[in-house]
Specification:
With 328 residues, this protein is mainly beta. The chain is 10% helix and 29% strand. It is globular. Its cofactor is Zn(2+).
Amino acid sequence: MNNILDAHKNIEKHTCVRFRNSSEGDHLHYYWGYGCNSQVGRSGGKQWISLGPGCWTVNGVHETLHALGTNHEQSRLDRDAFIKIHQENMIENIADAFAIIPGSPTGNPYDYGSVMHYNGKAFAKNDKATIETIDKNYQQTMGWRLGLSFLDAKAINHRYCEHVCDDYPWHAPDCRNGGYANPNNCTECLCPLGYASPYCDSVEPGNVEGKPMCPGESDILLTEQNPTLTEMRWYNATSFTCYWRLRAPADHYIEVKLFKLDGFKCDQSCYNFIEVKHGNLANSGPRFCCEMPTESMFTDVPGHEVIIFASAVQKGNYSIGLTYSITK
């Protein structure tokens, strides 16, 4: 029950949607069933949501978003530009779960880090990928289940909360870096990961076990073209969430190379990881936990920022090493 309440709190924190305990009229009914499943959209009356073995603890947000009308991210009409589907690696009678759904919304960029995206080995019969990302750096980003991504919340707010802030003198252009008016507080912005309200123009404060102890400077303006080498460590840390922003002059690109990644273990998805956001900063970036990228990552346009995000939810010793520089 607590996991369902946590899912509701996560949705309520980032959207105007509210849940109340009731068994009357149209309502959601969670039960211990076979697998994880929910009808997409409102069905009327008692709407059943199954959270069975293996999905009770982490899939509450995913299945609740189905009930709110959200399809799988990999069912989007534009998905073939971002992923390859390998039916030959799937168990029998499951291919329909990977089908493109006509009319699935594409107002937001494709989000590998959406809570609605399957992981790379979902329903595999042979431990091989059923979903392969076109950009290899995003393979470990898929399969997130611990809460809404920024674009997940934006889609829900567009569907249910679009006019909540109409009566306030606050408009999306006042929010920086892809942020928009927060329907829970129309005088502030909802900000992408790594940016802080009220305007999404400063770095979000990080923490190590609830204390402001993240290593290094959090906001770095790059002025030298020679690569800067940085190593960061967390010893016997129970949890941490740390952010760093790299900024470049207007006519320069930023290059980031990850060369060390210790302690960041993963299963089918990354829950302890480093993320390097170097494109659309409102979107999820490449995440790394099991494997490191073989090549450098560059910003898409000159003067664009990079957000580096490191997070862990399991106790252990962690370390990362990277170099960063600017180039024309």
